[in-house]
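Schema walkthrough. Field components (list of strings):
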Amino acid sequence: MIQVFRCESCKGLYRSPQADGTIYHHACPPLPPDKKGRELPRPDRRDENLAFNAAGRLTGLKREGKGVTCVSDKKLAEPGWISDLKRELKKREDG
Amino acid sequence: MGDSVISARPNRLITLGVQDAAPPTDSYISQDDQLFTHVINSAPGISVIITVRLLLPDGRINTNQFQYFPNSTRAPFQASQFLAEGFILSVTATAGASNIGQTWVNCTLSRNLPVGTFPATGAYGEILLQGYLSGNNCLTWPRGQIQGTISQQGWIRSITGTLPAAGAEISETVPVGAIWSLKSFLFTFTTGAAVANRVPHLIIDDGTNQLLNLAYASTIAASLTTQILTALGITPIVVSDGVARLNTPTNILLSAGWRIRTLTTALQAADQYTAPQYEVEEWIAG
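Field assembly_structure (string):
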């Protein structure tokens, strides 16, 4: 089921999964250019892309940032695939 | 010398040996060999089924089937299975509802390959099959083709991006594990009441460095709504019936972590972009 999430880092709204059922990996835009024209990344940015260690092992999301709020279903803390991923990684750690 | 099949034709020239015959394939499996399966997948809720037919030393044919449930994050999934000693007759890989470009499989004969990392330290043997599975496309050994990840047409997708906050830019990132070819990108820009001449740019970058910068050919004043489209093969137009067009070079391939985004000269705090709607052709990153 498609849910709408608000990123608490950039306040952007996004849908996950997409209409075709695939996962949408939100990543915050950079900050607007400063007075010198430099585009700096948000220090608290969120990036839902997957992170791997040097051995190629999956370690989780690249950056959690300030987290998300599900605006379409208050009971959801985050996209379901992220909860599944965290459970899987926890199981691997424990096992 | 073994027995021969008796033919009903007395003047036959060729006979077929059936005792002590040479194996029909050259893939001998010892008790130490394993079938290593590597899957990268973006399709939700699919299973990958690997079927292996083995000729055992006593002449029996054994069929083994392994079912895997890779998740849809494009994170590599690996599994290793010991096989009985004998000769492999065939290997096939099938999947459920998936599209070319979504579910990529590699099956290799191996020894002591750890699962969970890829590529890993260990002994890779013969690659038996490699390529995309879909609802209508299976992979097979022998006589199948070893395919690369972008060696055929990818999956055509329509994606709804993030709706940015007021005063923020659009930014869409190619997910880890994917390669995109951008076909079109459409969004609407509504300017606030603050007086300024905005100039939206469409940028493609590698996460840091700009690779492409397409500027809107005019300025957009306060309190206006403009739809902006870029697509392959279109003619740039400043505004026609409320739609501005930017020209896109052909065949832009984007790697994981690259971004498609806006960068707006004189963007004001109350200016608002919509969520972009865009079309890409997608493959699994090789």
